Structure formats: C-alpha cells, structure tokens
Amino acid sequence: LLFLWSITVSIFGIGGLLGSSGSRYLTVKYGKKRCLLCNNLVMLVAASIMACSKIAQSFEMIIIGRFMCGISAGLCIPLQYQYIGEISPKKLRGFTYSTSSFFWSLGKAIGQVSGQRELLGSQSRWPMLMASYGLPALIQLVTLPFFPESPPYLLMHKGDQEGCKKAIRQLWGEGQHQADIEDIMKEKATMKNTKILSVLDLMKDPAFRWQLYTMVILTATVQLCGINAV
Known about the structure:
Blueprint: H1 2-21, H2 23-30, H3 32-51, H4 53-56, H5 59-86, H6 90-114, H7 126-131, H8 134-143, H9 151-156, H10 161-172, H11 178-192, H12 199-204, H13 209-222
Transmembrane segments: 6-26, 62-84
Organism: Mesitornis unicolor
GO cellular component, one term: plasma membrane
C-alpha cells in the first residue's frame, strides 16, 4: 500500500519532467497557442479519468490521471510564461510575468483549502476534487481561441509578417508598432548566430555556472521550507 501511495504521488513529477523536456520541440513545431489548446485537452482527459476512478473502483486510473496531469503541468509552465510574455506590450510584460507566479501560488492555496475533509476531501466528495483539475483547463479551452498566436512565433518561426502585424494590432490596438516588429527581427537575427544549448551543454558552460548554482540551490531549499510537511 505504501508503494502504491508513493507511485501515485511521485508519478506527477515524472510526468512533469517528460512534459517540460518536450516543450521546446512542440512550441517551435506547432506554436504556443496550439500547444496550450492541446494541453488543456490532456488535462480534461486526465481529470475525467481520475473523477471516474471511484465508480470504476480502479486506483490505476488515479495513477494514470496523475501522470497525465504531470505531463500537462510540465508542458504548461514554460508555455504559459512564454505565451503571456510574448503577447504582452513591453510596459506590462513584467507585470504579466508576476501574475503567473501569483496564480500558481493561489492555485496551490485553493487546492489546500478545498482538500480539507469539511469541503471536498471527504470520502464521498474526493472524486469532485480530482475532477476540479479540469475546470481551469475548460475555461482556457473556451477562451483561448479568441486570442491570436504569439507575434514573435509568427514572425520568427513562420516568417508571417502580415500575420504578426495583425496579431499585434489585435493584442495592443491600432498604432505604430514598427519598432516592436524591428525588435523581433533583431531577436531573430541574434538567434541565428546563437547555438541552442542542451541540458548537458548548459551544465558544462562556465558562463552559466553561477546562474545554474543559484537556481539549483533555490529549488532544493524550497523542499526544506516546510511545504511538504504542510
């Protein structure tokens, strides 16, 4: 029983590792908006599988659902930050980045509260708690089609300058946006001369050594702050 509990909990992280590892390839090939839409479908399927696990009397369905949720979360984190940053005007970009972190924290807090026995953590209502995964995914699935694709993706990867201008006008309103388009073109030119590093290359490169140390230490010490005990 302890082994099954451990698998159920940890398989989310394994799915997250797989999802985040494939995020770069998928975003370059299919675009950030399309990947987010497909990701929401994965989350809805995962929520449905977990919600039906009690009726089916199958703990395996919970493990499968958790694994799919992990893949979805691993893919969503880099996608979310990239997409929201690229569709935001420069003056609001820092603010929109910070809202993502705020909503991640808010989601964790809502999960902790709604998981109490007095609310959805009871023996009869826990399938509803599992199904609640799908609510944010459903909202985004309905609203995201009204948003355009990321302007930098359209210009840098598709070479669609007219589509890029149309997306910018839809997002930022009418006006002179030539300077923003030129910035994207400069970034595209820079990327052509920049080698894409693998994880192993990143670990070997002395130029990123201290940034890497900082990120590893911060991520590791989060495990010591008491959140796991909570």
